[in-house]
Amino acid sequence: MKQSVVLSQYLQIALDLATRIAKGELPEGSRIYGRSVMASEYNVSPETIRRALRLLADMKVVEIKPQSGAVVLSADSARRYIANFEENADVRVLRRQLKDMMEEATDLHHRIADTIAALVKSRETFAAAGEPLPNYEVPVPKGSPITGKSIGALKFWQSTGGTIVAIRRGQTVILSPGPYAELYGGDIIVLVGTPAAAEAAHHLVTAKE
Questions:
Q1: Which of 35, 41, 79, 194 has its CA 20 to 30 A from that of 97?
Q2: Which residue has the higher pLDDT, 86 or 209?
Q3: What are phi and psi of 162, to 5 degrees?
Q4: Cβ–Cβ contacts within 10 Å for residue 97, how many?
Q5: What is the 3-state secondary structure (H, E, C) of 132-189?
Q6: Are 184 and 148 in contact (CB under 8 A)?
C-alpha cells in the first residue's frame, strides 16, 4: 500500500495551481488572482501564496509581474512540474519508510537486549534450581556464505529462532551485537535459544549458496 505524504501548505497550493493550469482551468496568458484574494480562497497567509507562486515561477509555469500579480505561462511546464513532484513524493515516502524501519530496528535491538538481561538475571536467580540459560556456540567457517553480511540482513532471528548475545572474534568479544553487526569466517556466534535454533544457525552458516 502506497503511503501518503503530508505536504507543506505552499507545496499543496503550488500543486493545486499547477493541476488547474494543466487541465486548462487557468489558461495560458490568464492572470491569477492577487495574493490577498488567493490567501482568502485557500485560507492561508499571503506569504504562503507568495512562496507557492515563487515555486511555480522558478519552474516557468507562471510569471510574476510586480504590481499585477502572476500570469500563466505554460501548461506544458505545469505538467512537467506535476510529474517531477510525483517522483519527489515517491522519494519522500521511501525516506520515511527507511527512517521508520531504522527506528523499529533500534527499538527491537533494545527489546532484545532487555530480554537477554532479564534471562541472565533469571539464570542467576534460578541457578540453584538447575535452570541454566540455554546458550550455544556456533562457529562460522572460513568461506561461509554469510561472510560480510549483517545480522539484520541475514534475518538471523527469523531464520533460526535464536538470538545472538555475543560474537567471539579472536581475542575480542562483541556483546549484544546490533542488527548492523557483520559476521566473518572464524567468528564464533554465541546464541540463546533451543537446540533446534542452534541447529538452524549451524545450517545457516554452512549452507551453500
A1: 79
A2: 86
A3: -110, 155
A4: 11
A5: CCCEEEEECCCCCCCCCCEHHHHCHHHHHCCEEEEEEECCEEEECCCCCCECCCCCEE
A6: yes
Are the C-beta atoms of 201 and 140 separated by less than 8 Å?
no
Q: Which residues pair with 163 in a beta bridge?
A: 192
Separation CA 165–CA 136 (nearest Å): 10
- Please state whether 204 falls in left (phi above 0), alpha (psi between -120 and 50) or beta: alpha
CB atoms within 10 A of CB 35: 19
Sheet holding 62-65, edge to edge: 31-32, 69-72, 62-65
- Residue 97's SS3 state is helix
C-alpha grid cell for residue 29? 496568458
* Amino acid residing at 79: R
* 3-state secondary structure (DSSP) of residue 192: strand
- Annotate 53-65 with DSSP letters as a single string: HHHHHHTTSEEEE
Give me the pLDDT at residue 122, please. 59
Residue-level length of the chain: 209
Express each pLDDT in 2-53 by its tens digit: 444 445 788 888 889 999 999 999 999 888 877 778 888 888 888 888 888 9
Rounded CA separation 26/48 (Å):
20
